[in-house]
Amino acid sequence: MPAKNSVKIYRENSIYHIYNRGVEKRKIFLNEQDYKVFLTCLKQYLSNPETEPRRQVLQGQTLQYHASKNYYGEIELLSFCLMPNHVHLLIKQKDKNAIKKFTQSLFTRYSIYFNRKYRRSGSLFQGRYKATNVIDKDYLLDLSRYIHKNPLKYTKDLIESYSSYSIYLGLVNTAWVNKNIILDYFNKSEFMKRHNIKSYKYFVEKFKYADEKLDLSSDTDLR
């Protein structure tokens, strides 16, 4: 489900759905290490610099191709999903320019890693990323559901996917992902109470709208 539109009018203390895809819909993750490198970049950028080392080595690959920056206190990652040829990030920014700086640094750094590893040149991602301001809380819940269901195109095991879903289920503790904003609203949602939806897991894996009104997987632009 991606963005209803792709305007980039950034506001302070606002939530945005960020979507980026490989050029010509090509894969941007070719093996497990690629996924782990992207996740390591997220961890370095979003972790408290006083508690996490800035430099990490992953299977012999040092992540120093691009200067390691840190956006702790500026950016909160609410949920994410890494797919073979695209990325979903649900982000809350404190400063109106934080997302611009964060995404430019993140995607540039990963592109440098990928191009050097596979001896390629040119753009890895297709054009500019899409960013949609998420204001409505019910839409925010449905968007998180969509993001966590995305891997069903490739696997039946959502928990083992490269996403924040296992964090939401309490199976993994990850300090650089803030699940509380969405789960707090889920627990207070009148819609959930009305439909007797008692767990986030059921909401993601089992619940279906009468008309699947917000099943954005039908958006062909994101395939």
TrEMBL record:
Highest classification ranks of the organism: Bacteria, Candidatus Woeseibacteriota
GO biological process, one term: DNA transposition
Gene3D superfamilies referenced in this protein's UniProt entry, alphabetically: Transposase IS200-like
Domain Transposase IS200-like: 11-150
Transmembrane segments: none
GO molecular function terms noted in the UniProt entry: DNA binding; transposase activity
Protein name: Transposase IS200-like domain-containing protein
